[in-house]
Fold these 2 entries.
Entry 1:
Amino acid sequence: MAASSSSSDEPSRSVFLGVDVGTGSARAGLFDEEGKLLGSSSSPIQIWKDGACVEQSSTDIWLAVCAAVKAACSKAKVASTEVKGMGFAATCSLVAVDSDSSPVSVSWSGDSRRNVIVWMDHRAIEQAERINSSKSPILEYCGAAVSPEMEPPKLLWVKENLQESWSMVFRWMDLSDWLSYRATGDDTRSLCTTVCKWTYLGHAHMQHVNDKESRDLEACGWDDDFWEEIGLGDLIEGHHAKIGRSVAFPGHPLGSGLTPTAAKELGLVPGIPVGTSLIDAHAGGVGVIESVPQSEAADHDKEAICNRMVLVCGTSTCHMAVSRSKLFIPGVWGPFWSAMVPEYWLTEGGQSATGALLDHIIEDHAASACLANQAASQKISLFELLNKMLETMMVELNLSFIAALTKDVHVLPDFHGNRSPIADPKAKGVIYGLTLDTSDKQLALLYLATVQGIAYGTRHIVEHCNAHGHKVRICRKSTHYLRVAAFQRILSLFRNMLILLVPL
């Protein structure tokens, strides 16, 4: 009783919950009104990989979300009544559910749990090529070609290969939209997901951007001719019921808020507002692109963000830039209107494997296990150990900078295709300079060369975007990073690599 009385005397707090579902885990963060992080937690999610096919379970993802939210609230000592609103961000994976919202298999295995085609799944390369051969005007808004990582090729693959599943699916949803739907029961889709991954034309809603009263809008941005032409005309039926009859600008409240069922599962209070979702990278872009270093605060204006590019790093890397006018850039996704920053056109470049590539290079090496044990004994990460080794090697060889260590080792990082600006999902990676050396020093060099290859890829994207109308400037004095923990492995080197390899 005393504890209860004490808590009732404390001033009421307003706490806001953000849920981010990445490729390997679900994360929950609690923030106060000033944006200060009060506490966070994560929970792993299962993933199945079989060649080009990469699948997950929406049921497993929701359980991970619930576990992360409860753990975050417990760690931060936040009561359920203090949470005043929440929102979701997630990978642009494709979810299939039936009329009862139960999972429908998208897997050759027939396992109904496996109802999510993960963003990085490349099974639909052939379907993407056929869609691109149509030369539809819609393709202008995704770099002149859809990627197998987008939803139309994946949908076409399921229709052509899993007929029974295709006939059972009642809703096809982007993962972040499904999470919002699971939380609220509202089937409204996000302008972010539909525009960036489904070929929806967001600029059809230009006149509604300042309509504060509108929670959702009739989906008037679908191009029916496109769906008919690529063999998916049945998705037009019922006013596009299976892919989205209504859309909303990101952040708009959905339905009547959190349903009683979802609230119980999450340990929260029914009815709290749930905002329309964003793709995970785009949520990061919103959080970073308008942040201004103290030294530049006086010069901040609406045009300043058009000189920036946000790198959102994790399993892959997304390169996000915005402009006041639409810029058509071959091999780079977009222009997407209001998909990230309201009333700005988004350009989205990317590298399909960055963090995942570093993991692959390290884990596949003979010295990996030994180095991991050394790192554990020193109570540091494997990446910290590799960075220390490289610094020592630089001193021993009397070199003036770390990058010079790899003069004979080079990595082309297209191990999972090239998303931008070559836009070739069939591209392959290359390691040049291999010898019979399997030492830990050789692994350190491979690690460094991979970081350099990733940085060169970023340079290629920046230069390509600037050659087609962007005016991205690289700031040497300060660099903003999002999801630092997910990419901690390369930050100590990556900052230097950008300066060394991407000269102004």
Entry 2:
Amino acid sequence: MINALINRPALGNFPPADWAKVLKEGILKVAPKGLNQVFTAMAGSDANETAYKAAFMYRRQKERGGAHVEFTQEEMDSAMKNELVPGSKPLSILSFKTGFHGRLFGSLSTTRSKPIHKLDIPAFDWPQATFPQIKYPLDQHKEENEAAEQKALKEVEDLIVNYHAAPCAVVVEPIQSEGGDNHASPKFFRGLREITKKHGVLMIVDEVQTGVGATGKFWAHEHWGLETPPDIVTFSKKAQTAGYYFGLDELRPNKPYRQFNTWMGDPARALLFKGIIEEIERLDLVKKTAKVGDYLFKGLENLSEKFPGQFENLRGKGMGTFIAFDNPKRDRFLVECKKVGVNIGGSGQSAVRLRPMLIFEEKHADILLEALEKVAGRLV
């Protein structure tokens, strides 16, 4: 760690002698099932940005006939002039309304959560599909919710087939975090995977916010029961480092410096993630988070009955502590929470979202529930 802190290497050119070992014992140790390779990055936006670049390169490489096919002089000349053809093509990344994938240029074009993120910044002409608008309680709206999900999937397929800039990948969050903690069913995501496979489009799962245990699984997409894994899974936040996992060898850049920057990650942060993984395993924190989440959800259900309207659309059952609810006086609710010592945040238009640490236990849930009850009482 001392060496990594005082002598940060340019990983693409001069990786430390033990870099492969650090990756195997850390980041790759918890790779999602079916994804055995990783490209390291510096932040969540960076992870998504490089994942998009990998998707574009993969698509064009296939169209040329494989990694061995050389670029033509015309392609190289047009690329230097920012001309679309022949050195590039009007391709796109399809994202979802109210999704959030970062604030860099490529990732920002797929971010659709708040205007403040996007104002004044030129954006790519990329498509957005509707994320299913789920109604709660789930057991009272089964038919409506299934219809909403099927309609969303139909829209996705229509955009893949007909959008003027062909999507080469679909990017989706397991739970739309910034956009209001919006959920969809495992069946929806299985359907999305089937559509991407049918049309030869990559599926990128953005686990920057949902990854590393908070949903009661190490990776949130493990809840879906996919027959085949996503093509790419991006990560950051709780991992303290960042990057994207992938399985296809064809997603590796076929020439030096195609997918490159000075740092390409940070060994010190990768070592931190290795230590985090070891603590998660030692204390069995993912399983404990699932258990604590169930306990916390039941407590919130009780509060929703006691204070009608203040804990609306309670969601995240069975998803660890990744829980949220809506409050019509959300901003005031958050201020009152801070007055009683609870640092809690909102997302979307009216959502209050919970993001406790993995070491959050039932005794901490009791403290939180008591504070929330006090706040709800003030707003009656």
